[in-house]
Specification:
The structure holds two protein chains of two kinds. Chain A has five helices and seven strands, in the order E-H-E-E-E-H-H-E-H-E-H-E. Chain A starts with a strand and ends in a 6-residue tail after the last strand. The model of chain A has no long low-confidence stretch (mean pLDDT about 90). Chain B contains ten helices and ten strands. In chain B, the strands form two sheets. Chain B has an eight-stranded parallel beta sheet, with helices on both faces. In chain B, strand 1, helix 1 and strand 2 form a beta-alpha-beta unit. Chain B starts with a strand and ends with a helix. Classes of the chains: A alpha/beta, B alpha/beta. Chains A and B meet through helix 4 of A and helix 3 and strand 3 of B.
Amino acid sequence: MILRNIVVGVDGSENAQRALDWAITLAQPSGARVTAVHALGLLDRLEHERVPTASHRDEILDEFRTTWCRALDTAAVTDDRLALDGTPADVILAAAAERNADLIVVGERGTGGGPARDLGSTSRRVLEGADRPVLVVPQEQPA
Amino acid sequence: MLVLSALGELDRHDTGDWHPERPARLEAVRLGIADALGASGDGIVPIAPRAATHHEIVRVHSPHYVWSLERLAADGGGELDPDTPVSAGSWDTAVLAAGAGLAVVDELASRDGGIGFVAVRPPGHHARPGMGMGFCLLNNVAITAAALADRGERVLIVDWDVHHGNGTQDTFWDDPRVLYVSMHQSPMYPGTGRVGETGGANAPGATINFPFPAGTTGEMYRRAVDEVVADAAATFSPTWVLISAGFDAHRDDPLAGHALAAGDYAELATRVAALAPRDGRVALFLEGGYDLAALRRSIAATVGRLTGTFETDEGPTHDGPGADTIGAARVFRDRLKEGS
């Protein structure tokens, strides 16, 4: 099995950074393309503050491409950086289908912030909806 | 006469301190209605919201989602997505919000006239059959439209919220009993509502979308109704008109980039209400609108115009982009006519 296309969800959270690092690590041996995807919702986060996406769209796009995806700048992989309107799970699944991804990588928890329950996490909805392999990267456990 | 079902103190949907979809919105709506009709309550028929039944909700939503949402709230809450928190009181509130619309149309059906207004939160039009999203838990307008359709009614839903009502579109995509019309900003959350989305195989043309660019004024919203929707409605011949009345296309709204003024909502309301077969067959459902002052003024303008009691001094807006969108929608309508 040779990985050629990996789609990874990116939202500025530490967990998403870990997911991106895993995507890069898995892509490098085979030279797979890494597509980083961010979902533009009604609200988004800038410097840990919730802001209306529509009125900060350019800032969010800039933050996504330059800061949240910084690990791609120095990685020896080809990459795309897609920001699409929609809910995170929908956007990740749509990008994976469109790119015919071999693998989807998501963090266990993103910027959502609410208590984790069995309904609602993006990673769970991606797992439920995906028709291809999914790697869920857990949060860093305290030592 | 305004047949009004307002949540008021029954609102237990807690979205947190930071969230723009907040309880204070309902107070802004209350004040806007008072601006239009006076503080005495004259001219209002108050209808207590009732809980929608399981049967009424699952006409639209999957039983699994309904069960999951109820359980999430019962467990203390969580979130459906980063935009959409659920609190311990959200289930009870959402069920009342869904039932308020049912109570209003039942009251209207028993009267000779009047305008229905469903002043509730959370809003509903993003809630899809299988999952809520975008601040929405249960699709209030869809639950009422589905109930009416099951009674043999033909329902026109006009959604003038600045975001596409993807949940309502999904619900009635292949249902010829409901004509769904949305005017919204694009590109914009949720990313759906392209002009080529016109309905499923069993309901060709029963969905009409106007994805307007940023900066669109009220003139384009009005022209969309005058140049496309009026003709489609005449063909469809609705027996009820339900309005997904978001007020976030207002130029002061922080969540979007359209440029409407309060007076545009009065003009739109006049045009859309005229598509109903007679007085007493129009109900408005609150959707978005996140600048409290703009929401109050827009509600006053809308309710004031429909009840003939108040005219805003914030007049309608003109010019700007969007004519291409109307032209494209007309092309799709013409193609459907040629194909039929």
